């Protein structure tokens, strides 16, 4: 959550600014009041210093931090997906090895080669 100020007085020259918080979750931006109660939300792909969320005009204090936090979260999600894929590959390899154990038993490489030689000689 980032600090922000917001107002309903979009058209007025002298605006009454209130303090609040803003949070980005995926493509959704949520505006909170000082007590961290949700005031409004909007689907946005890009965040800028000045936002229009519902009937509110919002200025975000530190937009760089908010964008960096989101990119770190995106990287973490990508890393998790890659790790899951790697785990799946390892599990598949283990399953293949287990199937080979069923075929060849717990034999050494020498024993397996001898069996193959014997089979090819008999043909």
Characterize the overall form: rod-shaped
Strand order of the largest sheet: 4-3-2-1-6-5
Give, in order, the helices and strands: EEEEEEHH
What percentage of residues falls in helices of 4 or more residues?
Answer: 40-55%
Rg on CA atoms, Å: 30 Å
Query: Quaternary status of these chains?
Result: single chain
Can you put this structure into words, describing what you see?
By secondary structure, the protein is an alpha+beta fold. It has 2 helices and 6 strands, in the order ββββββαα. Strands 4-3-2-1-6-5 form a 6-stranded antiparallel β-sheet. A hairpin with a 2-residue loop joins strand 5 and strand 6. The longest helix is centred in the C-terminal third of the chain and has 42 residues, at 63-104. The relative contact order is 0.11.
Topology (SSEs and partners):
Blueprint: E1 2-7, E2 18-25, E3 28-32, E4 38-43, E5 50-53, E6 56-60, H1 63-104, H2 109-122
Antiparallel strand pairs: 1-2, 1-6, 2-3, 3-4, 5-6
What keyword list fits this structure?
single chain, 123 residues, alpha+beta, 6-stranded antiparallel β-sheet, 2 helices, 46% helix, ZGRF1-like_N, 5'-3' DNA helicase ZGRF1-like N-terminal domain-containing protein
Short synopsis of the structure:
This protein is of the alpha+beta class. The chain folds into two domains: 2-61, no CATH class; 78-122.
